[in-house]
């Protein structure tokens, strides 16, 4: 019997009568509660055969437990004008009985069989597949691989760091310029014209730096999106 044994497992026995007389048969087992045998008895005509189905009921299989289940097939020549099968077996003499003994063997499918089944299912051809006329449509966009994406992200981070650095340097230069102007023109430092000049001169440099940084970021972000 081949597992798994979570459902009924059926094995067939073929009984053949090679003689020129009718033969009565009976199938017995040492574990009648575990098996269902159909037919468990009957008559076989000369030169004919019969199939006996042995159905093992579901159970929890233990590979360490050795099977002690056995079957025995008893046969005897059928008397003429037989009417009662039970009487045949009761009246049969020991020297008129023939028997064959069979031992049950339980087998579980191994991992190699499972792998072979999986490989066979993968390699099986697919039938009734429809063909597409013409070339395959091209995708609208092609995604970048991980390496290119990582490079672009690192480049954007570097540019942002450069912007912050230039902003700090510009602030420092602006403060230094204001300090020098105060030292050079202490009397005119508070006039509106001087204040306007200082504001225009100090704001022109950061605006230029922001424009340059925006151009670089726009270039790399455009490359990343494309």
UniProtKB/TrEMBL annotation:
- UniProt cross-references to Pfam families, sorted A to Z: Motile_Sperm
Q: Which UniProt keywords apply?
A: Acetylation, Cell junction, Cell membrane, Coiled coil, Disulfide bond, Endoplasmic reticulum, Membrane, Phosphoprotein, Tight junction, Transmembrane, Transmembrane helix
Which PROSITE patterns does the UniProt record give? MSP
Write out the annotated subcellular location: Cell junction, Tight junction; Cell membrane; Endoplasmic reticulum membrane
Where does the chain cross the membrane?
Answer: 205-225
> Can you give the residue ranges of the MSP domain?
1-107
MF annotations from Gene Ontology: FFAT motif binding
- The coiled-coil segments of this chain are 149-176
Q: Does the keyword Disulfide bond apply?
A: yes
Please state the protein's primary subcellular location: other
Query: What is the protein's known function?
Result: Endoplasmic reticulum (ER)-anchored protein that mediates the formation of contact sites between the ER and endosomes via interaction with FFAT motif-containing proteins such as STARD3 or WDR44. STARD3-VAPA interaction enables cholesterol transfer from the ER to endosomes. Via interaction with WDR44 participates in neosynthesized protein export. In addition, recruited to the plasma membrane through OSBPL3 binding. The OSBPL3-VAPA complex stimulates RRAS signaling which in turn attenuates integrin beta-1 (ITGB1) activation at the cell surface. With OSBPL3, may regulate ER morphology.
The Swiss-Prot or TrEMBL record describes its family as follows: Belongs to the VAMP-associated protein (VAP) (TC 9.B.17) family.
Tell me what this protein is called.
Vesicle-associated membrane protein-associated protein A
